[in-house]
Specification:
Elements lengths: L16 E3 L2 E3 L6 E5 L7 H14 L3 E5 L3 H13 L4 E4 L4 H9 L4 E3 L8 H13 L3 E7 L5 H7 L4 H17 L5 E6 L3 H12 L7 E2 L7 H17 L5 E3 L6 H14 L7 E5 L10 H11 L7 E6 L5 H5 L4 E4 L5 E6 L2 E7 L1 H4 L19 H21 L34
Parallel strand pairs: 3-4, 3-10, 4-5, 5-6, 6-7, 7-8, 9-10, 11-12, 12-13
Antiparallel strand pairs: 1-2, 13-14, 14-15
Bound molecules: iron/sulfur cluster (SF4).
Length: about 425
C-alpha cells in the first residue's frame, strides 16, 4: 500500500524566472533557500556556510551586501560557491550594480526604494547585462508611508500595492525576470497578502514569515503560514527565517515541502510517538537517525515504529522500516517487504530482574545499550541499501533536475528523474 503524495491543490501557474541555473516558478520544484549570517567580507566563512546550507539541501543562498567591501567580496564568493547567490541589497543602487557585476545570480532589491528613475534604469541594465534576476521583497514593517495612510496600516492591501508598485517599475522597463515576496511576522496577514498577490501577478512568489522567531516557535509559525499557502498551490520558492543556525532553516523548509508531498529530497523519518507498547526507545532511535542522515539529499523514507500495532502498515509504504517486536527482536523492512529480524534479545532482558511484564516492554529494551545497538544495525542497513542502489550517500545536484521519488522508496540507480511537483 502506498499513501498518496498528490498535492492538495493544483499549483498556481507562474512564469518561470531563473536564479542562475535554478528555475523558480513554472513547473520547477519549489526551491528552498536560506541566508548566510557571516560577515560577507569574510569570504572563507561565508563560502563555508553556503556549502553547509547546500549540504542540507539549499537550492540557492542569499548573502547581504550592505557595503562596497561586501560587494567586492562577492566576486570570490560567487566563483567559489556551488549554488547561485542572491545579493541582498536594501537601499543603495550602487551596491546592486556592483553585486550584479560580481556574479550575483539575483538581486533582492526594491526598485521603488532607490529614488531617481535613472538609477533604476542603471540597475536594470546591470541585471540584464549579467543575466541576473530580481526579487522584490516587501515587508509589513517597512511599507511606504503613503500606503500605510491610504490603507489604514500594514494590511494585505498595502503589502500588495507596494509589491505591485515596485513590479510596475520593472515592467515599464520591459524587465520581467523578477519574483515577489510579501512578508509579515503576522501569519494570517502573510497568508492573506500572498493570496491577494497570487491573483494579481504571474510572477513567481517567494514565501516566508519574517522574523518568525527562534527554532521551535519559528519553525511552527513558518510551517503554518507557508504550509497553508503551499497547500493552496501558492508559492514557488521559500525561506524559513529562524533566529537559529541557517542550516535549520533549510531543514525545516524541506520538511514543510515533504509534508505536503511537494518535494521528496532528503530523509523523511516517520516515527510513532511511542507508548507503553514500544519495544525499543522510539524517540531516541528516530532522533539519532534523523541527525545522522541529515546530510542525505536522495529521497528516502525511514519509518520507526515501536510495535506491531501500526508498524507493518507504515513499513509497507516503502523505504526502510523498523517495527518493534517482543523480547528484543525487531523486524526490518526494505521497500515494504520484511527482510530480516534484528535480534537484540540479550540486551532486551538486561537489567530486568524482577520485572513483571512478559512482553519485554520495560527494562533492557529501553536501555541505552539496546538503543545504541539498534541504531548501529539500522544505520548499517541504510548505508548498505544506499550503496547497493549505487547512489552516493551525500548529494544530488540541487534543484535544476531533481531525481525525487514520489514514494520515498529505497533509491535505485535506475529510477527515472522526476519533477516532484509536476
Ligand atoms: S506503534 Fe505501537 S509503540 Fe508506537 S505508538 Fe502505536 S501502539 Fe505505541
Amino acid at each position: 500500500m502506498e499513501y498518496s503524495t498528490r498535492p492538495l491543490a493544483p499549483r498556481r501557474q507562474s512564469r518561470p524566472v531563473w536564479v542562475g541555473a535554478v528555475q523558480v516558478g513554472g513547473n520547477a520544484p519549489i526551491s528552498v533557500q536560506s541566508m548566510t549570517n557571516t560577515a560577507t567580507t569574510d569570504v572563507a566563512a561565508t563560502v563555508a556556510q553556503i556549502e553547509a546550507l547546500v549540504a542540507a539541501g539549499a537550492d540557492f543562498v542569499r548573502v547581504s551586501c550592505p557595503t562596497v567591501e561586501s560587494t567586492k567580496a562577492l566576486a570570490a564568493i560567487t566563483s567559489r560557491a556551488s549554488v547561485p547567490i542572491v545579493a541582498d541589497i536594501h537601499f543603495h543602487y550602487r551596491r546592486a550594480i556592483e553585486a550584479a557585476d560580481q556574479g550575483a545570480a539575483c538581486l533582492r532589491f526594491n526598485p521603488g526604494n532607490i529614488g531617481k528613475p535613472e538609477r533604476v534604469a542603471e540597475v536594470i541594465a546591470a541585471a540584464r547585462a549579467n543575466h541576473c534576476s530580481i526579487r522584490i521583497g516587501v515587508n509589513a514593517g517597512s511599507l511606504e508611508r503613503d500606503l500605510l495612510d491610504k490603507h489604514g496600516g500594514p494590511n494585505e492591501q498595502a503589502l500588495v500595492e507596494s509589491a505591485l508598485r515596485h513590479a510596475a517599475l520593472l515592467d515599464k522597463a520591459g524587465f520581467t525576470e523578477y519574483k515577489i515576496s510579501c512578508k509579515a511576522s503576522d501569519v494570517p496577514l502573510t497568508i492573506r497578502a500572498n493570496r491577494l498577490l497570487a491573483r494579481q501577478t504571474d510572477a513567481p512568489l517567494h514565501l516566508g514569515i519574517t522574523e518568525s522567531g527562534s527554532g521551535k516557535t519559528g519553525s511552527l509559525r513558518s510551517a503554518v503560514g507557508l504550509g497553508t499557502l503551499l497547500g493552496e498551490g501558492i508559492g514557488d520558492t521559500l525561506r524559513v527565517s529562524l533566529a537559529a543556525d541557517p542550516v535549520e532553516e533549510v531543514r525545516v523548509g524541506l520538511e514543510v515541502l515533504r509534508s505536503l508531498g511537494l518535494r521528496q529530497r532528503g530523509v523523511s523519518i516517520i516515527a510513532c510517538p511511542g507508548c507503553a507498547r514500544q519495544q525499543f526507545d522510539v524517540a531516541a532511535v528516530a532522533s539519532r537517525l534523523e541527525e545522522r542522515f541529515a546530510h542525505l539529499l536522495v529521497p528516502l523514507k525511514i519509518s520507526i515504529m515501536g510495535c506491531v500495532v501500526n508498524g507493518p502498515g507504515e513499513a509497507a509504504e516503502g523505504g526502510i522500516g523498523l517495527t518493534g517486536g517482543g523480547r528484543g527482536t525487531h523486524q526490518l523492512y526494505l521497500d515494504g517487504k520484511p527482510v530480516r529480524r534484528i535480534t537484540l534479545n540479550s540486551l532486551a532482558t538486561e537489567g530486568r530482574e524482577g520485572a513483571e511484564d512478559t512482553e519485554g516492554m520495560a527494562g533492557g529494551i529501553l536501555s541505552s545499550r539496546h538503543t545504541e545497538a539498534l541504531i548501529a544495525e539500522l544505520a548499517q542497513e541504510i548505508e548498505a541499501a544506499l550503496e547497493e542502489a549505487g547512489r552516493a550517500s551525500v548529494s544530488e545536484t540541487p534543484a535544476q533536475a531533481p531525481s525525487e521519488s514520489a514514494t520515498g522508496a529505497v533509491p535505485t540507480a535506475t529510477a527515472p528523474p522526476r519533477q516532484a511537483d509536476g
